[in-house]
Specification:
Blueprint: H1 3-8, H2 11-16, H3 22-25, E1 29-33, E2 38-40, E3 48-54, E4 57-62, E5 68-74, E6 79-80, H4 82-85, E7 94-97, E8 101-107, H5 108-117, H6 119-145, H7 148-162, E9 170-172, H8 176-183, H9 187-199, E10 203-205, E11 210-212, H10 215-226
Antiparallel strand pairs: 1-8, 2-7, 3-6, 3-8, 4-5, 4-7, 9-11, 10-11
Helix pairs in contact: 7-10, 8-9
């Protein structure tokens, strides 16, 4: 499927790309990936700007000792590569597919031309970049200032709300390794907090999932731990 057909059949992308110059439209490349494939390697030089058409991607930092810190999970209509592309800097993070994914990418020279000719998109890019930096600043502050108990409760509440659940038992396909990567702490530390929450009847967990048994109590625990 070429880029013109993609935007013709998708209202969200029609809105994003509505003023794109015709000279740029045919420069986009469509790429498909299986789960577990690396799209961008941390430390490599950037030459493309990307959009996600379908699928989920993990954006993470990897330390020399193998420690992994997941900055974010990206989904449909998210873009990446914007931080590095202007000055052709090495990728700050690795981008890896979590599921089968379809991506579109635009070479740097065409990306720069697009921004010069499409002021509406330049404004959109600036606004969404500011929103992204705002959320990253919030996350960095929480990682430094708040207890691990609060951060775990906060993240679990976020995952439940993202699943659009408000009551009853909620099973999250989330294991201790994923929590460890997301919060940049050891699995042992994660396990200690989960055990305490389990003893309080708030949740139960296995090797592959966490089941929220009492969402109200989890939110109360989140609020209490914020001030401890």
């Amino acid at each position: 499927m070429n880029f013109r057909k993609i935007i013709k059949n998708d209202k969200k992308f029609q809105n994003i790309f509505k003023n794109m110059p015709d000279s740029i439209i045919d420069k986009w490349e469509v790429k498909e990936y299986q789960a577990g494939e690396i799209i961008c390697h941390q430390g490599e030089i950037s030459d493309y700007f990307y959009y996600i058409l379908d699928g989920y991607l993990s954006i993470y930092l990897m330390a020399e000792n193998g420690s992994k810190y997941v900055q974010s999970i990206y989904k449909r209509a998210n873009y990446f590569g914007e931080l590095e592309i202007f000055n052709q800097q090495p990728y700050v993070c690795t981008v890896e597919t979590i599921s089968s994914s379809k991506i579109i990418r635009l070479q740097r020279k065409y990306f720069m031309q697009w921004l010069k000719e499409d002021q509406d998109y330049l404004l959109y890019l600036t606004r969404t970049l500011c929103d992204s930096f705002y959320k990253l600043s919030q996350k960095a502050g929480e990682d430094m200032l708040y207890s691990l108990r609060y951060r775990i409760c906060n993240y679990l509440v976020y995952k439940v709300e993202a699943a659009q659940k408000s009551s009853g038992r909620v099973e999250l396909k989330l294991d201790k390794k994923q929590l460890s990567d997301q919060l940049a702490v050891t699995k042992r530390s994660i396990n200690r907090v989960l055990k305490k929450l389990s003893q309080k009847g708030i949740l139960e967990f296995s090797s592959q999932s966490i089941i929220i048994k009492d969402l109200k109590a989890l939110k109360q625990e989140e609020e209490l731990s914020r001030y401890q």
